[in-house]
Amino acid sequence: MTHVNKYADEVKQAIENESESLRELSLQIHSNPELGYKEVFAHQVITDYLESKGFKVTRHAYEIDTAFIAEYESPAATAAAAAGEKVKAVGYCSEYDALPGVGHACGHNLIAIAGVASALGVKAVLEKHNLVGRVRLLGTPAEETTGGKVPMIERGAFDGLEACMMTHPAPVDVVYATMLSVGGVLVEYFGKASHASSSPWEGVNALDAILTAFNGIGLLRQQMVPTNRIHGIITNGGKAANIIPDYTAGKILYRATSTDDHVKLHKSLVNILNAAAESTGCTVKITKEMEFKSVSNNEILAARYTIYTEQLGVKYSPRSVQEALPSGSTDMGNVVHYLPGIHPMYNLSNLEGIIDKSISNHSIEFTEKAKTDVAHVATLRSAKGLALTGLDVLLEDGFSEAVKHDFDENVSNGGAEIARNLKALASSGGCGCH
């Protein structure tokens, strides 16, 4: 299948014209890694950059200190809106939070400039030809933790968009990644302290409780479907070896490919955590900290992005191979259940489509790759594909309608079902004392 966008050369040139400044922006963010909701430096340099490029910028957007919105609409769009006409808008997401200890080991410095570059490409065409349309770049913090996109959705940041897209670095080029849903809980056990040698029988051991819980989780893995994941850490194991611990805590993440599996896994986890408390005489508090949905890529957007990036030289494996590759989770899943969108991934190691098996996301090796020249070129190549796809959403007759139809048929109803199930999870033991 082929498709030609008459603005392709203009989009590519507009992004290439800013390659040097985008590279500098990426390296600034890479050199100053900041954790979720603390991305003060990244927020400042990105918004300053966007303002210098003619975007209307709202800093600290939607009551989130490190979120932002950057928008551009052409004079023709302003006039059309004033006349009561519908003006289409397309959105892109930038992420810029880092990981503890390993910095930008997920390449969010690259995701930051990918969103900027995509918005610049669309703006260049709308501005030059005074075409009716809007582009919105959303700065979305804390993807690595509780997910800044989640409260931004709830507060209306994505409203009014026909579609929203982003791209993510990886060791491989993938459009149809199987991104898992993920839930996260904080579990706390409360016992009674006593001297571990002279009177251990006086104590109620909260460490026994959390160890029993982790053993139970280990046994649960035998019964899980192979695509599910569950993993966690003990964040507080007690105060001293000679004191029976009266308090312990841990964080646990659970992941699945389907809503049904997600719900079942959560219920099994809660049962295990409660049983560990009962068997050791402790009490337990389970607090849900986050919930990301699985990514459901819009078929129309994904197909068009694939065409454009293949024209730019990207080489993809067959879809069945792409879908079988292991992957993680993202709060972009919540976005694409709210409105049409895609979350492709691109190879930051090389431009020839060769899977780099020597690295993985969230490793120090990935941190080093995220600042290379090759990674920068690959990022802009993906951004060009997103920009061209976004222009089609705004300008091609019937395209946005086809995108919306695919969403309504394949995601919208399912998204409502997921929302109901997640609400049920919250009332079935995700939070409260037991």
UniProtKB/TrEMBL annotation:
One Pfam family linked to the record: M20_dimer
Domain Peptidase M20 dimerisation: 184-278
SUPFAM superfamilies: Bacterial exopeptidase dimerisation domain (SSF55031), Zn-dependent exopeptidases (SSF53187)
GO molecular-function term, one example from the UniProt record: dipeptidase activity
Leader sequence residues: none
Family matches, as CDD domains: M20_ACY1L2-like
Family stated for the protein in its record: Belongs to the peptidase M20A family.
Name of this protein: Peptidase M20 domain-containing protein 2
